[in-house]
Specification:
The protein is mainly alpha-helical. It is built from 12 helices and 2 strands; from the N terminus they run ββαααααααααααα. Among the domains are: 10-126, 3-Layer(aba) Sandwich (Kinesin); 245-286 and 302-381 and 392-442, no CATH class. α6 runs antiparallel to α12 (394-442), α7 (296-309) runs parallel beside α12 (394-442) and α8 packs parallel to α10 (356-367).
Length: 443
């Protein structure tokens, strides 16, 4: 323990300020610090005021040790505010400064522990790196500053000249670029117009292509339809040719049938004439000799004669007046001899349509020459001639013969009508085929 110690820390601050007028001043601080040594109270055995001083010294040194430890650990927080000593040394320990520390030890054996602690503290402080101090260099020679500024001014003038030259060249280049841009804009406008024209042309080309495809498909369809129509036309022509051959054949057959019909009609007229003549002869013979007994030869030949006589005459009335006259005579006969059948006149006229004369003759034979009395009664030939026995009356025989002839004639006429209907149908078919052929030739 130093007997003459002030038992306190001493800090000497030397501040140096320099600079030029109208310029910021520069300041430098120099700290000269004499730290009081640590003191063990057990050894010094101080009391009272000195004990308090020893406590403050040890506390400040402990705070300085904590700051040094934090700086050694590169801690984010350094406790400079724990002590007034560390707070005053904040700029020296952590700012833009250079710090140098001298540790004093006592070589006596009695201060062995204090010496060890002081050396450990010095070792720890030695490891601390607070960084390099930055120097604030100020030009002390104004002439050097002026020369330097003049040199910089010359350099700036040269740079300005070069900049002006570059500016001129850039202006020329800018003009060329503007001209190129203008040309490019015009070219782009023309290109845009060309592109628009090309788009329109492409669209038109696409529409024409689509239309061409549709027309091609339509043409193919029409071609197929034309081929089908040609095939159908060929078939129709073949059918027409076949039908024409059939028509020619049928025409030939019709001609043959018509010739045959003409021959049959001639034969029929001849037969009618013969039958009418035979009927007339028979009626004349009956009127002339009604009571004569027929001979065996006459009896043998009577069926043939009666058949010829009762042959159904054919031929239609010549006019409506003749038909009306025949109708009135038929009604008169029915009203006189058979009143019950007067209502059947229309049926009889329709049944014997075209053969009204034949109907009138038959009714006259039955009612006038057959012994039928007015009112519908009839008498036999025996009673009329006054003979006791009588055979079948002659009118009855003539009626049966006439009925047989009428049936055969009806069958013949029905067959003739059917044949005429077939011929008519064939003519209609031939006419239709001719019309089809004429339409095809016209097409």
């Amino acid at each position: 323990m130093n007997e003459h110690s002030s038992r306190s820390h001493m800090i000497l601050n030397v501040r140096v300020t320099c600079g030029m007028k109208d310029q910021p001043m520069q300041t430098g601080n120099l700290y000269l610090i004499d730290l009081a040594g640590s003191e063990r109270v057990r050894k010094s055995e101080v009391v009272g005021e000195q004990l308090k001083e020893a406590g403050h010294i040890n506390k400040s040194l402990a705070a300085l040790g904590n700051v040094m430890e934090a700086l050694d650990r590169k801690a984010k927080h350094v406790p400079f505010r724990d002590s007034k000593l560390t707070y005053l040394l904040q700029d020296s320990l952590g700012g833009n400064s250079r710090t140098m520390m001298v540790v004093n030890v006592n070589p006596c054996n009695d201060s062995y522990d204090e010496t060890i602690y002081a050396l450990q503290f010095a070792t720890r402080v030695r490891r601390i790196n607070i960084g390099t101090a930055k120097k604030n260099v100020t030009s002390k020679n104004l002439e050097e500053t002026v020369n330097k500024l003049s040199s910089e001014l010359k350099l700036l003038a040269q740079a300005k000249a070069r900049s002006e030259q570059q500016m001129s060249s850039l202006k020329r280049e800018n003009k060329r670029v503007q001209d190129r841009l203008k040309s490019a804009a015009e070219s782009r406008a023309r290109s845009h117009d060309d592109t628009r024209t090309m788009t329109v042309l492409k669209k038109s080309h696409a529409e024409m292509t689509e239309r061409l495809k549709k027309e091609k498909v339509l043409r193919e369809g029409k071609t197929g339809e034309l081929e089908n129509l040609q095939q159908e036309m060929q078939k129709v022509r073949q059918d027409t040719a076949r039908m024409a051959r059939q028509v020619d054949k049928l025409s030939t057959q019709i001609t043959e049938k018509e010739d045959k019909i003409s021959d049959l009609q001639k034969q029929l007229r001849t037969a009618k004439e013969k039958a009418s003549a035979a009927n007339h002869r028979a009626r004349t013979a009956q009127i002339v000799n009604p009571r004569s007994t027929p001979s065996s030869g006459a009896a043998a030949s009577s069926p043939v004669s009666r058949e010829r006589v009762t042959a159904k005459p054919r031929g239609a009335p010549k006019s409506d007046d003749d038909i009306a006259k025949i109708r009135s005579e038929v009604e008169e006969l029915l009203g006189k001899y058979d009143p019950n059948k007067v209502g059947k006149v229309d049926t009889l006229m329709e049944k014997f349509s075209g053969r009204e004369t034949y109907l009138l003759n038959k009714m006259k034979q039955r009612y006038e020459n057959g012994g039928v009395r007015p009112g519908g009664s009839s008498m036999s030939n025996g009673a009329a001639n006054g003979s006791a026995g009588g055979s079948v009356s002659r009118p009855a025989t003539r009626g049966s013969s006439a009925t047989a002839g009428t049936t055969a004639q009806q069958r013949s006429e029905a067959a003739l009508q059917k044949h005429m209907a077939r011929m008519k149908q064939r003519k209609e078919r031939a006419s239709a085929s001719s019309n089809v052929q004429s339409r095809l030739n016209g097409a």
